Amino acid sequence: MKIIPIFLPYAGCKKRCVFCDQIKATGQTKIPSLDDIARIIEEYSRTSNEYELGFYGGSFTGLSEEKMEEYLRFVKRFPVVKSIRVSTRPDEINERKLKILKKYGVNMIEVGVQSFLDEVLERSKRGYTSEEAEKACKLIKKNGFILSVHLMVGLPGSDRKGEILSALRTVECGADMVRIHPTLVFEGTELHRVMEEGEYTPLNVEEVVDICSDLVCIFEGWGTKVIRIGYHVPVELRKYVVAGPFDPSLGDRVRKKTMKKVIESLKPSRIFVPENYLVWFESAEVEVGDEFRFDDLSYADALFFTGKEVIEKWLNG
Question: Count of CB atoms within 10 A of residue 257's CB?
Protein backbone atom coordinates (compact mmCIF):
# COMPACT_ATOMS: atom_id res chain seq x y z
CA MET A 1 0.00 0.00 0.00
CA LYS A 2 1.31 3.45 -0.92
CA ILE A 3 2.13 5.90 1.86
CA ILE A 4 1.01 9.46 2.50
CA PRO A 5 3.99 10.96 4.35
CA ILE A 6 3.27 13.62 6.95
CA PHE A 7 6.47 15.20 8.28
CA LEU A 8 6.45 16.70 11.77
CA PRO A 9 10.01 18.09 12.06
CA TYR A 10 11.35 17.86 15.64
CA ALA A 11 7.83 17.31 17.00
CA GLY A 12 8.08 15.46 20.29
CA CYS A 13 11.89 15.64 20.29
CA LYS A 14 13.28 16.56 23.68
CA LYS A 15 16.93 16.16 22.64
CA ARG A 16 19.04 17.09 19.62
CA CYS A 17 21.28 14.29 18.36
CA VAL A 18 24.73 15.15 17.00
CA PHE A 19 23.85 14.20 13.42
CA CYS A 20 20.37 15.67 13.16
CA ASP A 21 19.05 18.58 11.14
CA GLN A 22 15.58 17.63 9.98
CA ILE A 23 14.98 20.96 8.30
CA LYS A 24 18.06 20.75 6.07
CA ALA A 25 17.34 17.07 5.38
CA THR A 26 13.71 17.57 4.33
CA GLY A 27 13.33 21.27 3.54
CA GLN A 28 10.26 21.46 5.78
CA THR A 29 10.58 24.35 8.20
CA LYS A 30 7.39 24.03 10.25
CA ILE A 31 4.95 21.47 11.60
CA PRO A 32 1.89 21.27 9.31
CA SER A 33 -1.49 22.36 10.67
CA LEU A 34 -4.51 20.08 10.51
CA ASP A 35 -5.69 22.04 7.48
CA ASP A 36 -2.29 21.43 5.84
CA ILE A 37 -2.59 17.70 6.56
CA ALA A 38 -6.11 17.64 5.10
CA ARG A 39 -4.82 19.26 1.89
CA ILE A 40 -2.00 16.70 1.63
CA ILE A 41 -4.41 13.79 2.06
CA GLU A 42 -6.86 15.23 -0.46
CA GLU A 43 -4.06 15.69 -2.98
CA TYR A 44 -3.02 12.04 -2.67
CA SER A 45 -6.63 10.86 -2.83
CA ARG A 46 -6.84 12.05 -6.43
CA THR A 47 -4.71 9.12 -7.59
CA SER A 48 -5.82 6.30 -5.28
CA ASN A 49 -8.48 5.48 -2.69
CA GLU A 50 -6.25 3.39 -0.43
CA TYR A 51 -3.24 4.67 1.48
CA GLU A 52 -1.29 4.13 4.62
CA LEU A 53 -0.56 7.42 6.36
CA GLY A 54 2.83 7.80 8.00
CA PHE A 55 3.79 10.36 10.62
CA TYR A 56 7.53 10.92 10.11
CA GLY A 57 10.13 13.24 11.55
CA GLY A 58 10.37 14.01 15.24
CA SER A 59 9.13 11.48 17.80
CA PHE A 60 5.39 10.96 17.50
CA THR A 61 4.97 9.33 20.91
CA GLY A 62 7.03 12.13 22.44
CA LEU A 63 4.05 14.42 21.85
CA SER A 64 1.51 14.94 24.59
CA GLU A 65 -1.21 12.32 24.74
CA GLU A 66 -3.74 14.99 23.75
CA LYS A 67 -1.73 15.96 20.66
CA MET A 68 -1.23 12.35 19.60
CA GLU A 69 -4.94 11.70 19.84
CA GLU A 70 -5.73 14.93 17.98
CA TYR A 71 -3.59 13.90 15.01
CA LEU A 72 -4.78 10.30 14.97
CA ARG A 73 -8.46 11.17 15.38
CA PHE A 74 -8.18 13.73 12.58
CA VAL A 75 -6.58 11.49 9.94
CA LYS A 76 -8.93 8.61 10.74
CA ARG A 77 -11.76 10.80 9.38
CA PHE A 78 -10.51 10.33 5.81
CA PRO A 79 -11.79 7.15 4.09
CA VAL A 80 -8.65 7.01 1.95
CA VAL A 81 -6.51 6.39 5.07
CA LYS A 82 -6.69 2.62 5.57
CA SER A 83 -3.85 2.28 8.07
CA ILE A 84 -1.39 4.42 10.03
CA ARG A 85 2.27 4.17 10.96
CA VAL A 86 4.28 6.43 13.24
CA SER A 87 7.99 6.98 13.84
CA THR A 88 9.48 7.57 17.26
CA ARG A 89 12.36 6.87 19.69
CA PRO A 90 12.87 3.92 22.04
CA ASP A 91 12.69 6.08 25.16
CA GLU A 92 9.26 7.40 24.16
CA ILE A 93 7.63 3.97 24.21
CA ASN A 94 5.54 2.61 27.08
CA GLU A 95 2.36 0.60 27.60
CA ARG A 96 0.14 3.66 27.97
CA LYS A 97 1.33 5.25 24.73
CA LEU A 98 1.01 1.97 22.85
CA LYS A 99 -2.56 1.65 24.09
CA ILE A 100 -3.37 5.04 22.55
CA LEU A 101 -1.82 4.04 19.22
CA LYS A 102 -3.75 0.77 19.25
CA LYS A 103 -7.00 2.62 19.99
CA TYR A 104 -6.70 4.58 16.74
CA GLY A 105 -5.63 1.68 14.55
CA VAL A 106 -1.90 2.35 14.21
CA ASN A 107 -0.45 -0.88 12.85
CA MET A 108 3.26 -0.12 12.44
CA ILE A 109 5.79 1.65 14.64
CA GLU A 110 9.12 2.73 13.18
CA VAL A 111 11.73 3.12 15.91
CA GLY A 112 14.91 5.13 15.41
CA VAL A 113 17.24 2.89 17.39
CA GLN A 114 20.26 3.87 15.21
CA SER A 115 22.62 1.54 17.10
CA PHE A 116 22.56 -1.16 19.76
CA LEU A 117 26.00 -0.16 21.06
CA ASP A 118 26.04 1.95 24.21
CA GLU A 119 29.23 3.85 23.29
CA VAL A 120 27.79 4.81 19.92
CA LEU A 121 24.50 5.91 21.46
CA GLU A 122 26.34 8.01 24.03
CA ARG A 123 28.61 9.70 21.51
CA SER A 124 25.58 10.42 19.29
CA LYS A 125 23.72 11.93 22.29
CA ARG A 126 20.74 9.66 21.81
CA GLY A 127 19.85 9.68 25.50
CA TYR A 128 19.03 5.99 26.03
CA THR A 129 20.92 2.71 26.38
CA SER A 130 20.94 -0.34 24.14
CA GLU A 131 19.04 -2.21 26.86
CA GLU A 132 16.29 0.42 26.81
CA ALA A 133 16.14 0.22 23.02
CA GLU A 134 15.80 -3.54 23.10
CA LYS A 135 13.10 -3.35 25.78
CA ALA A 136 11.10 -0.86 23.69
CA CYS A 137 11.32 -3.01 20.56
CA LYS A 138 10.14 -6.11 22.41
CA LEU A 139 7.29 -4.19 24.02
CA ILE A 140 6.11 -3.04 20.59
CA LYS A 141 6.12 -6.62 19.33
CA LYS A 142 4.41 -7.88 22.49
CA ASN A 143 1.55 -5.47 21.84
CA GLY A 144 0.99 -6.75 18.32
CA PHE A 145 2.45 -3.93 16.21
CA ILE A 146 4.60 -4.35 13.12
CA LEU A 147 8.09 -3.26 14.15
CA SER A 148 10.37 -1.34 11.80
CA VAL A 149 13.82 -0.45 13.16
CA HIS A 150 16.02 2.36 11.82
CA LEU A 151 19.77 1.81 12.02
CA MET A 152 22.56 4.21 11.06
CA VAL A 153 25.87 3.04 9.65
CA GLY A 154 29.03 4.99 10.39
CA LEU A 155 28.07 6.82 13.58
CA PRO A 156 30.88 8.05 15.87
CA GLY A 157 32.45 5.14 17.74
CA SER A 158 31.11 2.40 15.48
CA ASP A 159 32.95 -0.04 13.22
CA ARG A 160 32.13 -3.07 11.06
CA LYS A 161 31.88 -5.40 14.05
CA GLY A 162 29.59 -2.95 15.80
CA GLU A 163 27.29 -2.65 12.80
CA ILE A 164 26.98 -6.44 12.62
CA LEU A 165 26.25 -6.69 16.34
CA SER A 166 23.52 -4.06 15.94
CA ALA A 167 22.06 -6.04 13.05
CA LEU A 168 21.96 -9.23 15.10
CA ARG A 169 20.27 -7.51 18.03
CA THR A 170 17.73 -6.00 15.65
CA VAL A 171 16.85 -9.50 14.45
CA GLU A 172 16.74 -10.81 18.00
CA CYS A 173 14.26 -8.07 18.94
CA GLY A 174 11.86 -9.43 16.34
CA ALA A 175 12.03 -6.55 13.86
CA ASP A 176 9.81 -7.18 10.86
CA MET A 177 11.51 -4.50 8.78
CA VAL A 178 14.56 -2.28 8.89
CA ARG A 179 15.78 0.92 7.30
CA ILE A 180 19.54 1.33 6.93
CA HIS A 181 20.81 4.90 6.78
CA PRO A 182 24.41 5.96 6.20
CA THR A 183 25.58 8.74 8.48
CA LEU A 184 25.65 11.98 6.52
CA VAL A 185 27.19 15.17 7.87
CA PHE A 186 24.80 18.10 7.51
CA GLU A 187 26.12 21.64 7.64
CA GLY A 188 25.90 23.21 11.07
CA THR A 189 25.25 20.06 13.09
CA GLU A 190 27.34 19.08 16.07
CA LEU A 191 28.70 16.21 14.01
CA HIS A 192 29.93 18.77 11.48
CA ARG A 193 31.84 20.56 14.23
CA VAL A 194 33.29 17.32 15.60
CA MET A 195 34.42 16.33 12.11
CA GLU A 196 36.11 19.68 11.53
CA GLU A 197 37.93 19.27 14.84
CA GLY A 198 39.32 15.97 13.57
CA GLU A 199 37.42 13.79 16.04
CA TYR A 200 35.19 12.08 13.49
CA THR A 201 35.83 10.67 10.03
CA PRO A 202 32.78 9.75 7.95
CA LEU A 203 32.71 6.61 5.86
CA ASN A 204 32.97 6.87 2.09
CA VAL A 205 30.46 5.39 -0.36
CA GLU A 206 32.47 2.25 -1.09
CA GLU A 207 32.84 1.47 2.61
CA VAL A 208 29.13 1.93 3.21
CA VAL A 209 28.18 -0.24 0.22
CA ASP A 210 30.41 -3.02 1.54
CA ILE A 211 29.10 -2.80 5.11
CA CYS A 212 25.45 -2.48 4.10
CA SER A 213 25.66 -5.50 1.79
CA ASP A 214 26.83 -7.55 4.78
CA LEU A 215 23.88 -6.26 6.79
CA VAL A 216 21.40 -7.11 4.02
CA CYS A 217 22.65 -10.71 4.07
CA ILE A 218 22.05 -10.88 7.81
CA PHE A 219 18.68 -9.17 7.83
CA GLU A 220 17.06 -10.85 4.87
CA GLY A 221 18.75 -14.16 5.57
CA TRP A 222 17.13 -14.11 9.02
CA GLY A 223 13.72 -12.88 7.86
CA THR A 224 13.87 -9.11 8.48
CA LYS A 225 12.95 -7.18 5.34
CA VAL A 226 15.16 -4.24 4.35
CA ILE A 227 12.73 -1.56 3.16
CA ARG A 228 15.17 1.31 2.66
CA ILE A 229 18.92 1.79 2.18
CA GLY A 230 20.12 5.39 2.23
CA TYR A 231 18.55 8.81 2.67
CA HIS A 232 16.36 10.66 0.24
CA VAL A 233 17.73 14.19 0.21
CA PRO A 234 15.92 16.54 -2.22
CA VAL A 235 18.19 17.92 -4.94
CA GLU A 236 17.88 21.49 -3.72
CA LEU A 237 19.02 20.47 -0.21
CA ARG A 238 22.04 18.38 -1.14
CA LYS A 239 24.26 21.45 -0.76
CA TYR A 240 23.84 21.04 3.01
CA VAL A 241 25.47 17.59 2.97
CA VAL A 242 29.07 18.58 3.64
CA ALA A 243 30.50 15.07 4.04
CA GLY A 244 29.57 11.42 4.23
CA PRO A 245 28.51 8.68 1.82
CA PHE A 246 25.66 10.32 -0.06
CA ASP A 247 24.62 8.52 -3.25
CA PRO A 248 21.08 8.67 -4.72
CA SER A 249 21.64 5.15 -6.10
CA LEU A 250 22.99 3.68 -2.88
CA GLY A 251 20.22 1.09 -2.54
CA ASP A 252 20.87 -0.44 -5.96
CA ARG A 253 24.63 -0.41 -5.39
CA VAL A 254 24.20 -2.26 -2.11
CA ARG A 255 21.89 -4.84 -3.67
CA LYS A 256 24.36 -5.48 -6.51
CA LYS A 257 27.18 -5.91 -3.98
CA THR A 258 25.01 -8.26 -1.93
CA MET A 259 24.31 -10.50 -4.90
CA LYS A 260 27.97 -10.48 -5.87
CA LYS A 261 28.89 -11.69 -2.38
CA VAL A 262 26.24 -14.42 -2.51
CA ILE A 263 27.54 -15.67 -5.85
CA GLU A 264 31.18 -15.57 -4.74
CA SER A 265 30.30 -17.42 -1.55
CA LEU A 266 27.99 -20.12 -2.91
CA LYS A 267 29.30 -20.42 -6.49
CA PRO A 268 25.94 -21.61 -7.86
CA SER A 269 25.92 -23.22 -11.29
CA ARG A 270 22.49 -21.78 -12.14
CA ILE A 271 20.83 -18.57 -10.96
CA PHE A 272 17.16 -17.79 -11.54
CA VAL A 273 16.03 -14.20 -11.06
CA PRO A 274 12.64 -12.45 -11.45
CA GLU A 275 12.84 -10.03 -14.37
CA ASN A 276 12.34 -6.95 -12.20
CA TYR A 277 15.59 -7.70 -10.33
CA LEU A 278 17.92 -8.39 -13.24
CA VAL A 279 19.64 -5.03 -12.60
CA TRP A 280 21.20 -6.53 -9.46
CA PHE A 281 23.06 -9.11 -11.59
CA GLU A 282 24.67 -7.07 -14.34
CA SER A 283 27.95 -8.99 -14.32
CA ALA A 284 26.56 -12.51 -13.74
CA GLU A 285 24.96 -15.08 -16.04
CA VAL A 286 21.39 -15.53 -14.90
CA GLU A 287 18.11 -16.96 -16.17
CA VAL A 288 14.74 -15.29 -15.78
CA GLY A 289 12.47 -17.12 -13.35
CA ASP A 290 9.39 -16.59 -11.24
CA GLU A 291 11.45 -16.49 -8.04
CA PHE A 292 15.04 -16.27 -6.90
CA ARG A 293 16.92 -19.57 -6.98
CA PHE A 294 20.61 -20.18 -6.45
CA ASP A 295 20.77 -23.83 -7.55
CA ASP A 296 18.46 -25.41 -4.93
CA LEU A 297 18.56 -22.49 -2.52
CA SER A 298 15.92 -19.79 -2.21
CA TYR A 299 16.83 -16.12 -1.91
CA ALA A 300 16.49 -16.18 1.89
CA ASP A 301 18.50 -19.39 2.23
CA ALA A 302 21.29 -18.06 0.01
CA LEU A 303 21.54 -14.87 2.07
CA PHE A 304 21.40 -16.88 5.31
CA PHE A 305 24.46 -18.93 4.42
CA THR A 306 26.31 -15.88 3.12
CA GLY A 307 25.35 -13.98 6.27
CA LYS A 308 26.72 -16.78 8.44
CA GLU A 309 30.09 -16.34 6.72
CA VAL A 310 29.94 -12.60 7.38
CA ILE A 311 29.29 -13.19 11.08
CA GLU A 312 32.06 -15.75 11.39
CA LYS A 313 34.51 -13.47 9.61
CA TRP A 314 33.86 -10.33 11.65
CA LEU A 315 32.79 -11.70 15.02
CA ASN A 316 34.61 -15.00 15.33
CA GLY A 317 37.55 -14.55 12.97
Answer: 19
Which residues, at least 6 apart from 246, have a Cβ–Cβ distance to it below 8 Å?
Answer: 182, 184, 205, 231, 233, 238
- What's the pLDDT score for residue 16? 86
Rounded-to-5 percentages of helix, strand, coil across the chain: 45, 20, 35
Burial of residue 316 (CB within 10 Å: 0-12, 13-18, 19+) is exposed
- Separation CA 315–CA 4 (nearest Å): 40
Residues 14-68 pLDDT 10s:
888 999 988 888 888 889 999 999 999 999 999 999 999 999 988 999 999 999 9
| The pLDDT value given to residue 270 | 97
Burial readout 114-134 (b: 16 or more C-beta within 10 A, e: otherwise)? bbbbbebbebbebebebebbb
Q: Is 148 exposed, middle or buried (0-12, 13-18, 19+ CB in 10 A)?
A: buried
Q: What is the DSSP string of 251-286?
A: HHHHHHHHHHHHHHHH--S-EEE-GGGGGGGTTS--
Kindly report the backbone phi and psi dihedral angles of residue 251, in degrees, each rounded to the nearest multiple of 5, phi listed first: -55, -50
C-alpha gyration radius of the chain: 20
The string over 167-190, giving b where at least 16 C-beta atoms fall within 10 Å of a residue's C-beta and e elsewhere, is bbbbbebebbbbbbbbbbbbeebb
**Does the pTM exceed 0.90?**
yes
Provide the pLDDT for residue 317: 67
Q: Are 173 and 134 in contact (CB under 8 A)?
A: yes
Which of 56, 11, 54 lies closest to 30 in space, CA to CA? 11
54, 6 Cβ separation under 8 angstroms = yes
CA separation for the pair 261, 31 (Å, rounded): 43
* pLDDT for the residue numbered 106: 98
Residue segments in the chain with a per-residue pLDDT below the cut of 50: none
